[in-house]
Structures are given as C-alpha cells and as structure tokens.
TrEMBL record:
Organismal lineage: Bacteria, Bacillati, Bacillota, Clostridia, Lachnospirales
Protein name: TAXI family TRAP transporter solute-binding subunit
UniProt xrefs under PROSITE patterns: PROKAR_LIPOPROTEIN (PS51257)
InterPro entries given in the database record: TRAP_TAXI (IPR011852)
Pfam families: NMT1_3 (PF16868)
C-alpha cells in the first residue's frame, strides 16, 4: 500500500472517530465530564462560527475537557438532539427552547425536551424578510400571491414566518407557493430568482446574505410598529428591533423588524462544576467569540438571564449569583 493511500485511510479513520465521538452517548446514560458536543447550526448561519469559538475557548481553557462542535439545521434539530442525549450544549432561539420544554407549538406532536436547562442568553436573532427587487414587494402584505421561502419544515424560521404572516392575516394558501427551504437553499433560489422572497432568522450580518450582495439585487421588507406590538402580545418572545443602516451593501436606512433572543441550553445532567466553568469561560474569553462574529459584542453579562424562558442549570445559576446577576 502506498504512503498516499495510507494517509487517506488515516484521514478517513480520524473523521469517522470524530463522528462516532459525538454519538457516543447513544448507548450510555452516563454524561462524561471530559467530553461535550455542541450543536450549532448551518455553516452559513450565525450559530456555526459562534459554536466554533466556544469549542476553542473550552478546549484551550478548561482542563481535561474535550469539546466538539456539530453543524446542524439549527434550533429545532438541536432540541431534538438534546432530548435524545446526543449533544450536551445547544444553540437555540428562546421561543423554540420554550416550545420544546413545554411540548407546545411546533413541538406539540413531538416528545417534550425536559432534560434541558438554561445556560445564558446570547444576542437578538433578527427576522429578515428579503425580496428580489423586481418582485414588487415593499411590505409584508405584498407577499400574497408570491413564491416565498418560509424555512425548513418545523424549523424556527418556519415558526417565525407563520406567526408573522398570521399577524398580517396571511395564510400559506394566500401565497403563490410557500416553499419549505433551509437557509442555504433559500438564498440560492433567491439569487437565481426562482423565488420572490425569503424569511431568514439569524444574527446580523448573516453570512449567507453577505455572500449574495455582489450578485443579487434584493430589498429588505420592514414590519410595521403596530404589527410588531400585536405580535408581541400574542407571542411575548418577539421584540422590536432594527437592522442598522449599512449592515448590508446598499442598505442606506434602518429596517424595522422583529427579533427573538438566541440562547444556549445545556443538559440538566451535566456536572454543576463543569457548567459553572463553561458559563464562566464564555464571559472571561468573550473576545474570542467577538473575533468569530460581530454578534459576540451583544453577549453581555448584565443581560445574560433576562428573558430566560426555562430554568437555569445550577452551575450557570451559581456563576450568575456570584456576579450579582438576577
């Protein structure tokens, strides 16, 4: 066997060992203190770079800990993985964490995910409604009769799209075609003008949108203040937010829209001391997170538990208590 073939085989074995590593607890109820897997999101979203930053922080600064990050489809898949004990930490929208824990909304026909506990709130995830400029869409109501990407089936984006359309008295059947597409596919179809508009919920700037700035001519659709207020009354997780002017190329004014907080959840079975160290490391080495994505600037100790939708893990609570955060 040539050296080249041996090298290729070694790389394959290494890759397989990493995949198996994240799935080790499928056959064991024991949560090992020296091993954690972090469920992130798609490679074009915000969770992924932040998850990679967390992995680096934990591996560099917590003794005897091995951390791995896993790319996923985002919030809903992360909660399913948490419920099955396949990962120890998950990025998730705050509304999806609540739905998963209580078995409501998009989790009403799924198993409750009762083994999760809050770790920290992170940053606002912005509902971005983008449309091809030549599709004649200037407000949400104009989406009627259009082909619109509404997120993958049972995803956090799909829940946001359905709820926001509902506040505007628009049902999926009022659209020409409601397409269930993950973020990357929605962006690609938008770029190729195969769809008229897309809902995207992510931290800003969203890398997938940045990638099409040079090749696509699109506009952002605002949500009116009164509709956001109605949305908040029905779904308290939503807040009024702005996409600041200059966030994206050619965006010369602020865009008013709705946002939901991103957060981290952990397995309730994780050791209290370990979760204390995991939580502490986020804030002590925040610069590493900031270097990975601008949204790291929004991760602040003083609002780490504001709006927390589920019970805090004891380890995280101990850290915040020490810091006088309540």
């Amino acid at each position: 066997m040539t050296k080249k073939r041996i090298s290729i085989l070694l790389l394959i074995v290494l890759a397989l060992s990493l995949i198996v590593g994240c799935d080790k607890k499928e056959t064991s109820n024991e949560v090992k203190k020296d091993y954690i897997c972090i469920a992130t999101g798609t490679t074009k979203g915000t969770y992924y770079p932040l998850g990679r930053a967390l992995t680096k922080i934990y591996n560099d600064n917590i003794k005897d800990l091995r951390a791995l990050d896993q790319s996923t489809q985002g919030s809903v898949e992360n909660m399913v993985l948490m419920g099955k004990g396949k990962v120890e930490i998950g990025f998730v929208q705050s509304d999806i964490a609540y739905y998963a824990f209580t078995g409501t909304e998009i989790f009403k026909d799924k198993d409750k995910v009762e083994n999760i506990r809050g770790m920290t709130m992170l940053y606002p995830e912005i509902v971005q409604i983008i449309a091809n400029k030549d599709a004649n869409i200037s407000k949400v109501e104009d989406l009627k009769g259009k082909t619109v990407a509404i997120g993958a089936i049972d995803s956090g984006i799909e829940a946001n799209a359905r709820q926001i359309l509902g506040i505007h008295d628009i049902k999926y059947q009022d659209l020409k075609d409601a397409q269930y597409l993950p973020l990357e596919e929605a962006i690609e179809k938008l770029k190729n003008k195969e769809i008229d508009a897309a809902f995207i919920t992510a931290g800003i700037p969203t890398s997938a949108i940045l990638e099409i700035e040079e090749t696509s001519n699109f506009v952002f659709i605002s949500i009116s203040k009164d509709k956001i207020q109605n949305l908040n009354k029905k779904y308290p997780f939503y807040k009024e937010v702005h996409i600041p002017a200059g966030t994206y190329k050619g965006q010369d004014k602020d865009i008013l829209t709705a946002g939901i907080m991103a957060m981290l959840v952990v397995s309730e079975d994780l050791d209290e001391d370990l979760v204390y160290d995991l939580t502490k490391s986020i804030f002590e080495y925040r610069d590493t997170i900031i270097d990975s994505h601008d949204r790291g600037n929004d991760i602040k100790l003083e609002r780490a538990i504001s709006g927390m939708p589920i019970e805090l893990h004891k380890g995280a609570k101990r850290y915040f208590d020490e810091k006088g955060i309540d």
